[in-house]
Amino acid sequence: MIHLIGLGGAGKTTAGKLLSIKMNIPCIDLDECFIENAGDIAEYIDLYGYAAYAKRNVELYLHLKQGMDENTQMVVVCSSGFMTYPENIISAYLQLKQDIEVNPSTFLLVPSLNLDECIEIIVERQLARPYLNSDAEKEELKVRKRFEIYRKLNCYTILTNQSSEAVVCQIVQQLG
Question: Is 10 part of any domain?
């Protein structure tokens, strides 16, 4: 599995879909899976809380992984908070998170390594998505809460303040 992780608005879904086409393998977006299985993410969080959403998201990932043959190649676009959930969200989460982090096919996508630049780019991208029903303050807070968690992960980082094609080329090159 090729994992694309990072903040919302970092370019994970765009890169994942392009990578899928380039490599002729499926692309699974966990947000899309969640919506198909549980409905609108914001509504789910409003009804059940963020912890219930995170738990359900991890369970969907585990279900997806269980249904795969070990030789199956696919791109998995993780939800923006996937690597930042509380470690006890479910018993398997900590090990799962560690496995994803150290997998040589995991790529952290981030528009900038500078927090202020990252906030500026992410907030602009997120506000351009009307379905998020968010505001600049909420999006900035998410970036501030998650930025250092992602930066500390031990995986290959790709800057997405370049064309999506360049991002995909870097991933393919790193995969060898």
Answer: yes
Residue range(s) defining the domain that contains residue 64: 2-170
Q: Is 160 exposed, middle or buried (0-12, 13-18, 19+ CB in 10 A)?
A: buried
What is the model's pLDDT at position 42? 85
Banded model confidence at residue 53, pLDDT cuts 50, 70, 90? very high
For residue 156, the SS3 value is: strand
Closest CA to 129 of 80, 84, 56: 80
- The predicted model scores a pTM of 0.92
In a domain, residue 99? The reply is yes
CATH number of the domain encompassing residue 70: 3.40.50.300
CA 156/CA 45 separation, integer angstroms: 31
